[in-house]
Amino acid sequence: MTIAQLSTAAAGLLSAVDEKVATWIVVGLATAGVIIRPFRWPEAVWAVTGAILLVLCGLMSIPDAWTGIAKGLDVYLFLTGMMLLSELARKEGLFDWLAALATAAAKGSPTRLFTLIYIVGAVVTVFLSNDATAVVLTPAVYAATQAAKIANPLPYLFICAFIANAASFVLPISNPANLVVFGGGHMPPLTDWLRTFALPSCLSIGATYVVLRLTQRRALMSEEVATDVVRPALSSCGKLAAGGIAITALVLIGASAWGVDLGLPTVVSGLATAAFVLLLKREGPAGLIRDISWSVLPLVAGLFVLVEALDRTGVIRLLSDELKRAAAAAPGEAAAGAGIIVALASNLVNNLPAGLVAGSAVQAADVPKVVAGAVLIGIDLGPNLSVTGSLATILWLTALRREGQDVGAWPFLKLGLLVMPAALVPAITGLLLTG
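^ thats the sequence. predicted structure below, dont judge the formating
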């Protein structure tokens, strides 16, 4: 049976069902698959399956699906560049070298090592984005725990997941979702951004640190950090990889200041760094390409198709109308309510599709900036509740699995129930005070 015949048959089965309801059902099931991962299949399988079902069932045309996929081009380029840089750094021993430095600086104190990793995580998130923290920092932190001979690395690895979201609205480049919410000419100047989000960011970062330290104190107290760690020499290729990451950070800051999309500069930086390293080593790219976790790209593409399908059911128009009405009546209450609702919704459907939907609604409604800011905080910070709340956390999970570690949905949720609200409420309060 051909694809056309399958599509006709599926459309016939759905003839008695409202197309909007059918679309919501398919999108809901696909999203549930991404979150729950039945049979422990990768998240990408469920997102792509949902996208294919929408087309086969006649709920979405192939051109419309391609339109959804094309909207994610900048994200694909950004992730590709970051994954190239991360894999280069891992292969060239940069993570092992940084791990030895961090362990030596800790001087045998698990709490000092915890704080050092948290500070580094905040800096990486601010200047390289939350996805970079998940992709680049996670393997470095795992290497540090191994160098320090720590039996339970999870308290330190949790930092990478939570700080990736907690510090992701310090700058526009700290999270690609920021560019979605304030896209289409709505991005405020950098000085205005800092005035708006400086206090909420400080409150978010501080509250997240306090809760993580308190919840992990027992595990930290039971560990000993080795002090006799041999510091490996950093090769020329390792230095080149480090330089590539540093230059990428500067490029991203410049791109953000000029209002340029981040994807192309990131992938160009990653490809250039890879080319220099491979030329210096006189190696081909096959090994580097083989070891990158490419499954994240079809996952993102599938999510973009699901959002495109939702958009065509009129959901975004309905949300924008309601948001505009609430903002006109009481901007402060609308901001707080929208921020909390979006934060929770990000965990139900992942903050990438939630950000796309909410960002489109915000731009269509043309709401006050305090409302848009609260929505952005909800999208950025809300995913700290669940293990699949954000793309950064999914990337973090992928990095953990490569190191032989795994975190289930329930253990993460128990911690997220404490961490996320403790940061979200002060952050939105700070926004209302400054907004």
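The radius of gyration is 22 Å.
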